[in-house]
């Protein structure tokens, strides 16, 4: 067994029972850290350098953490917030660039995205996938 195989085995042994960083929050933290590093390479800010350290430190803390339920809960909160931001951005983009005749809702039961025409007042929307109806103002 060569040096690198032993190193890999020791690391694998060390990581047993630890969370690791391969979830949405982990990738989000790495993405934020990467953006900060690139921006700071040009800006040379005294604020961004400690911020990079905090973001990477939090990533490493989560990576080596043994409190897996807490890390999963953090990831769940982050995932839901990130999904809301993505939906808001998508809706704003659609509204600004062309698709302003429609409004988008998410089915409360199956979470399918539903497109309805705007300016029809308070209407009942029926999900074609699961059949659930709900009222919404367009
Ligand atoms: Zn539905």
Structure explained in plain terms:
- This protein is α+β, with helices and mostly antiparallel strands and 138 residues long.
- The protein has 2 domains: 3-99, no CATH class; 101-138, no CATH class.
- The chain contains 4 helices and 4 strands, in the order H-H-H-H-E-E-E-E.
- The chain has helices at 3-14, 24-43, 48-64, 68-96, and strands spanning 102-106, 113-117, 122-126, 133-137.
- Strands 1-2 form a two-stranded antiparallel ribbon. A two-stranded antiparallel ribbon has the order 3-4.
- The longest helix is centred in the middle third of the chain and has 29 residues, at 68-96.
- The chain is elongated, with a radius of gyration of 22 Å.
- The relative contact order is 0.09.
- The model has no long low-confidence stretch (mean pLDDT 91).
- Bound molecules: zinc ion.
- Zinc ion binds next to loops.
Shape: elongated
State the domain count. 2
* Strand numbers in spatial order across the main sheet: 1-2
Bound molecules: zinc ion
H/E element string?
HHHHEEEE
Largest beta-sheet characterization: 2 strands, antiparallel
Number of beta-strand segments: 4
On the 0-100 scale, what is the average pLDDT?
91
Figure out the total of helices: 4
Q: Measured on Cα atoms, how large is the radius of gyration?
A: 22 Å
What is the compact description of this entry?
Helices cover 57% and strands 14% of the residues. The radius of gyration is 22 Å and the shape is elongated. The chain has four helices and four strands; from the N terminus they run ααααββββ.
Overview features:
4 helices; 2 domains; 138 residues; two-stranded antiparallel sheet
């Amino acid at each position: 067994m060569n040096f690198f195989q032993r190193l890999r085995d020791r690391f694998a042994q060390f990581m047993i029972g630890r969370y690791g960083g391969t979830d949405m929050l982990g990738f989000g933290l790495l993405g934020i850290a990467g953006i900060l590093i690139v921006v700071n390479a040009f800006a040379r800010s005294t604020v961004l350098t400690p911020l990079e350290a905090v973001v990477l430190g939090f990533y490493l803390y989560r990576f080596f953490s043994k409190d897996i339920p807490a890390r999963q809960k953090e990831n769940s909160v982050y995932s839901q917030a990130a999904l809301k931001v993505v939906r808001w951005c998508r809706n704003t983009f659609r509204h600004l660039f062309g698709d302003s005749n429609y409004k988008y809702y998410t089915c409360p039961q199956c979470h399918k995205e539903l497109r309805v025409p705007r300016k029809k007042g308070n209407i009942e929307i029926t999900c074609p996938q699961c059949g659930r109806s709900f009222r919404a103002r367009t």
